[in-house]
Amino acid sequence: MKKLDKLILSSFIGPFVITFLVVVFILLTQHMLKYFDDIIGKGLGFDVIGQLLFYFAIFMTPVAMPLAVLLSSLIAYGNLGEHFELTAIKSAGISLTRTLVPIFFFVVALTGVAFWVNNNLVPKAALEAYSLLYDIKQKKPALDLREGAFYEGIPDMSIKINKKFPDGITIKDVLIYDHRKHDGNRDVTIADSGKMYTIMEERYLKLELFNGYNYTEGASSEQDLSGRKRSGSRSTFSRSQFAKSQVVFDLSSFVLAKTDKNAFSGNRLMRNISELETDIDSVDTEILEARLTHYEFKKGLFTMYGALDTISLPDDLRQYKASRKQKDIISILDPGLSNPTPIPVDTSEKVINVDSNRFRKNFPDRSKFEKGRPEGKVKVPSQNIAKSKAETTKKVPLTRFKLQAKVDSIFNTEPDKGMFENAANKARSAKSRITGTAAEIKDYSEDRRVFQIQWNKILASSFACIAMFLIGAPLGAIIKKGGLGVPFLVSIMFFIVYYLLTMQGEKWAKKGAIPVPIGVWAADVILFVIGIYFLRQARLDARFFEADYYLVKLDNAKKWLAKKGLFSK
User: Quick one: which of 554, 488, 348, 569 has its CA closest to 26?
Assistant: First the structure.
């Protein structure tokens, strides 16, 4: 590696590491603010908070890496231009394009790393983060009994403490309402003082109460079946005094419970490319199944025109129907067979003729198994056999006039109310069936687009590093300003453009307004074109960010207008 390449790489790698960590921290802070209310006040330990931050930091990597490449390339080439190092390099006969080569190969390698992270680490981190966040949301707030306020965090209990001493254990003036019987404030405990602490690894809360009373108001035992008191009956009331009493409350609802992660694994954010391809194939199968069911059911919807229907199955449905029959046959023949060899199936409709004599030859005489009949052949008179065959096979053909008369009688029949209601019910049934099938296919199609968006997004977010580099490096050479001032503002502006294009493209792609690849890759393509334009201007030593450049352009415009007589000095 030449010294020039080492110089340029060293000027890029240092700012990249710092900017990457800063960007991850900023994005992580912005993301965690959405769940601030769900986390604060739950009494979570540092290990749980640390795990949540770590998983979400990995989840932010696909967004942070392109922005870090943009910002670090702006800083690197801005510093080189500000210290006239680019001028010295050009004076030595080395073009600007040549100086981009070492960082370009580094960014290409970084793109491969970004793809690996997006495809392998990010889905796992998203699964861990969102499952842990769900458990945190389900957890009750930490046990916090405040002075002079009722605390109702413990199920079916309401506790009030007027004073807590600095040791955190001793309490005074305790009032407890027990609602476990769900019959109102009928069980009340009052104590002058007490102690409050947790036992058995904070699974239970124990209260030791001193010098108090317990008041219990119970319903009368004389109640009817509906639970109401009979007339004239009275409720019981009891009061007991105690010098010391112990009450234990279960705190299992305050413990962070772990939910099965498989409940979240179906989300698109928790899937890699291979899993997304499997999901897309599954959705395609569901769409084909819904369409095939609709085609097969249409004859039942339109009974009058069912026999005259000439619409054949589309090619994709015919192939799917044939493959489904093949799988059914293979599963019957060999249920344990996996990945069977495809058998060529003729999808054309044919009538299969079966040799009935050959079929009967392999089965015993049915009369042997009939109850009350002796084994062997049963003699049946040949006359009866001939008569039954003649009756079953004999058909009386209708003459032309009889057929015409029968058709005319049907069409000349006056329709009654029942016929209209029957026709209306059939029309409603057909409409409901068609509407339901269309809605089902629409939902499946939307799910397919969602999986396609995530599949393309894994690749597009990785290749965004190259597009951002092609913008940042030439732009830094044009600006010639290092540090975090102007480069930071410019990088934020382009990142906002990239973010808006990505969000809008995904929104349109999800609705089906544009194809999914166009919606996801549009931001990368647009920024890539802008980067090529900036690279061309940097090679020409353009001065976009100098005031003299615009003053010269303004003077030339005034001279041209004055020459045309449209402007007077």
Answer: 488
